[in-house]
Amino acid sequence: MIQRFEDFHPAFTFFYYMGVILLLMMFQHPTILVIALLIILMIHFVEDRFQNLKRWSLLIILSGVLIILLNPVFNQRGRIVLFIIGDHYITLEAVLNGSVTALSIMAIISIFVSYNEVMTPNKLLFLFSKLLPQFAVLLMLTLRFIPLMRRRLEEISAVQYSKGIAVTDGNWRKKVKNGLLYIQVLVTYSLEEAIQTADSMNAREYGKGERTTYDHFRFKKIDAVAFLWVGFLLIYCVIGRLYGFGVLTIYPMMDPIPLTGMEWCLAIGMFIFIAFPLVVKGGGRLKWRILISKM
Amino acid sequence: MAYINFKNVTFSYPENPAMPALQDLSLQVEKGQFVVLCGHSGCGKSTLLRLLKQEIKPHGAILGDIQLEGQSLLVENSSSKGIGYVFQDPENQVVADEVLHELAFGLENVGLSTNEMRNRIAEMVNFMGAENLLHRKTHTLSGGQKQQLNLASVLLMQPNVLLLDEPTAQLDPVSAREFLDMIVRLNGEFGLTVIMAEHRLEEVLAVADKIVMMEKGQIRLEGRPKEILPKVWDSSEKPYVPTIPSFYLKVFDQGQEGCGVGASSEVPLTVKEGRSWLRERRDGSPVYGYESTESTQLISEHKLDKPELPPSEPIIEVKNLFFQYDARKPSEAILKGLSLNLHKGEFYTLLGGNGSGKSTLMKLICGVSKPQRGKVIINKRDLKRWGRQELAKMIGYLPQNPKLYFIQDTVGKELQDTLEQWGLATESGEKRTSDLLNSLGIPHLTNKHPYDLSGGEIQKVALACLLVRQPQILLLDEPTKGLDPVSKGQLADILLELQSQGLTIMMTSHDVEFAAKYADRCGMMFEGRITSESSPASFFKGNFFYTTMIQRLFRGYTEDVVTMEEAIRIWGAR
């Protein structure tokens, strides 16, 4: 079977995403961030042709543009003045500072969208249940209760509607009153039913002793390899960063913007790290082709 | 030494120390037995079951002793690990959002290793044939599947005793039968001791080793099904006797025996036994055998009994209705061009499988959902032109779950609220309300919280709240679900009384016997349409599966017998 990025062990997937976010926050350099953002967009494109990202595009673009625009408004520090509006100085430093923040925020939101798709509640639950078994049960119940409550509320409003009571009725006071009555019914009903859930949990020995968890995911060799590879890249990047590379110093004196040779070495390490899902996908395609050509 | 032994157990809840829930009760259950508990709701069945399971034991004062394999269950720290418990409501027992997680839940609690869990789950999934359900979200399962899941997750704990508290009360008959078959299999193939509280004796009679009839915390009758049924028949619990034995016993009562068949202890329990009894009778008696003339006579008699309604005004007209929940998925349409006519004063029952759209149709008729295409005409006016308040006054809708009906915290407040909403809080309005409560037999419930009532009571209370606003049409979604036979009879009386006052009643049901007995017309829903529709007699006549027990009993002898009353009459007319 061809390995997909989603099939890696949740611990690895979690590690990858946290690593990406860490790197995006550490390397505050416009060139690096632009390329990183492009790679993340590519991940989305390859995954689902931007289907998921589309829903978030407004938020991503809006927050990016706002930060770029607002930073120079409140920040007049810097030596290189681009232009003056009234008595307000717009400096290159301020614009660059804003862009760096904007880029890293946009990149982080984009990678989070992918995280949401890949780290299903199940995987998260699995990870947490290793650390905090009791919390995991709570999380599991919550996951079940949210859609349950929503369905119940729908039922309640249908029945009350048939009685001639609706939240859309009358002035706002009446609306609020009816709405609160709905919620009251929902809460009493749910509490009442939850007693039975608790009984059913008790009847299955819940809270009697040490809890174990069912391992839904097995840690395979390929997970270990991936961990080693990505871990190596992360350490490489972090050490480089600690030596002071890969960040654009803006204040008090701005560094030259182009990356030095050493910084390029570091940046490429980071790009390979972020591009891991693309590597997996590309590798999978290649393997598939080879398999097919052999047949 | 009995396996499970109740020795003179008296148990009372703290709220009501004067009225013990169990009173000096003694019961022995042998290993591997299949025991069925029955009786009205509130007779102590659940209390008895719960006392066996340490973890969910009710609080209260207990006298006497309960022993499992000679070990008392009442001492501190006694373990009831070998006891599994399945509850009534399929939905509320589920803890996890995915089937696999749910199955693993109990195993995780006892601290098994992943490997062992995987083995046990694999085995169970195989046994239940549920491979394709493993990764489904639990809320997408049907009620029957949920209950099977609950059973599976209890069985995974490898119990020796299985306790079930009305496990099929919330299921439709097909799922209920599947569930019971599974229990029977577990009992038969694995020797699991089963104690089950259950109203539907029909399905379990043939396999139960012991029936225990309870009343007011005491055991009224107890014994093997064939021995106990005649005794139940002679007691006030008559409605509990299923159709076929009760037909036999009724005939027996009328003293029309004498053809070589029968002491009351040979009461037939299944259709098979019933038919062989009928055959024996016929062979033994040359007089026996139905002439076609008698059949026709029977039909006319039936018509006299339930006169065909004069062709009155149609009150509900449904024309070419289309409905789907998801606009993007026309292939999943629920209703596909459904048409229906209901006349004033009619009692109409809609039958059909789960998810065939019965409930959806009701919601469309009372305006809660809007159809994509087609028309609903109430009283010659298009539904779209009815104001919501007007419509609510015209139609009373009782949802499948009557608990959701109540918005106030006592029955009295809910009634008062309804009166005020409709401007009926006058003296005459209140007088009418109290008359209504009296006629339903529920005036003592006004200070109670609706959730504290039993299934039958909450149904009556919700009906009362509906009737206060004097609707002309009643839409009832599965009103017979989960009711014990006595409450069911009371519901039928109420509905017939309302019908005689001129109300039009439409209900959905899985209960074939109920429909056959009380409805004027039955309709069958299939593929988003009503495929057949007629009076119960001709509706059930041709059906093979979807028909009453009596019709199955008489199939091949005479075709027109659908209800018990008809069967008795033709027996007498012979």
Automatic annotation (TrEMBL), chain A:
CDD domains: EcfT. The keyword Membrane applies. Its main location: membrane. Keywords: Membrane, Transmembrane, Transmembrane helix. It is found in: Membrane. The chain crosses the membrane at residues 12-44, 56-74, 94-113, 125-146, 226-251, 257-280. It is a multi-pass membrane protein. It holds the Pfam family CbiQ. PANTHER family: ABC TRANSPORTER PERMEASE, PROTEIN ABCI12, CHLOROPLASTIC. This is Energy-coupling factor transporter transmembrane protein EcfT. It comes from Evansella alkalicola.
TrEMBL record, chain B:
The keyword Membrane applies. One of its GO terms (molecular function) is ATP binding. It is found in: Cell membrane. InterPro entries: AAA+_ATPase (IPR003593), ABC_transporter-like_ATP-bd (IPR003439), ABC_transporter-like_CS (IPR017871), ABC_transpr_CbiO/EcfA_su (IPR015856), ECF_ABC_transporter_ATP-bd (IPR050095), P-loop_NTPase (IPR027417). Keywords: ATP-binding, Cell membrane, Membrane, Nucleotide-binding, Translocase, Transport. Residues 4-241, 316-552 form the ABC transporter domain. It comes from the Bacteria. SMART domains: AAA. It is a peripheral membrane protein. CDD domains: ABC_cobalt_CbiO_domain1. NCBIfam families: PRK13648.1 (NF010167). Belongs to the ABC transporter superfamily. This is ATP-binding cassette domain-containing protein. It comes from Evansella alkalicola.
